[in-house]
Amino acid sequence: MKTLFTATAAVALLATAAPASAKIANGTTVSDMIVTDSNGKQHKLSDFKGNRVVLEWTNDGCPYVQKHYDTNNMQNLQKEATLGSDTVWLSVISSAPGKQGYVSGEGANALTTSRDAAPSAVVLDPSGDMGQAFAAKTTPHMYIIDEAGTLVYQGAIDDNSSARKSTVPGAKNYVRAALADLDAGQPVAIADTAPYGCSVKYSS
Fold it and tell me: What are phi and psi of 88, to 5 degrees?
């Protein structure tokens, strides 16, 4: 029987090979973990094997996140990625209670509705276990896992690190490009970039 790991156990597993919060190398098979979404439903990452998974770390109070949502850049990307495909998009909130961006499940659902966002689910990670397992550093911080469960992209959403909304149209969107490479059956050409944005608001 396949062993299932909780998010906390996944952190411990990764720590056997590297310090806690160390970056996961591209080409690594992502460790299984159980996460809980804004509706209280649990998901195992292994359940998505056979699907691509996009992970988006988010914090609605962060101006860099606002840049991409206020221009509908993030919502359009979510819809493009998931429409008529087997791609799963998980927006992850790792803000700790009392920190910027922390919301309840009800609050997360209200944000999704008000922004016309289209993630497959919003994962609540107030303990920071999932964020630490992936070494998520900023909001946004983006990851793509392929159908085999292998990490194939990590980093920024695009190549313009300004918080100005006017920079979105001219930026190269790394996530869109990576998904296009996968659609074409090619390796991701730009697979690792420096994330930019607000720091993830972990408890410590």
Answer: -105, 130
Q: Give domain status of residue 204, yes or no.
A: no
Specify the CATH number for the domain of residue 180: 3.40.30.10
Give the Cβ contact number of residue 4 at 10 Å. 13
* 58 domain-assigned: yes
In a domain, 125, yes or no: yes
Total domains present in the chain: 1
Do 49 and 92 touch, CB atoms closer than 8 A?
no
Residue 2 lies in a domain: no
Any idea what DSSP says for residue 167? G
Surface-to-core class of residue 59, CB atoms within 10 Å of its CB (0-12 exposed, 13-18 middle, 19+ buried): buried
- Residue 44 DSSP one-character state: E
- Could you read off the pLDDT of 87-124 as tens digits, one per residue? 999 999 999 999 999 999 999 999 999 999 999 999 99
CA torsion angle for 65, 69, 74, 76 (degrees, to 10)? -170
What's the predicted TM-score (pTM) here? Answer: 0.90
Check residue 98 and give left, alpha or beta (phi > 0: left; psi -120 to 50: alpha).
Answer: left
**Domain span holding position 177:** 7-199
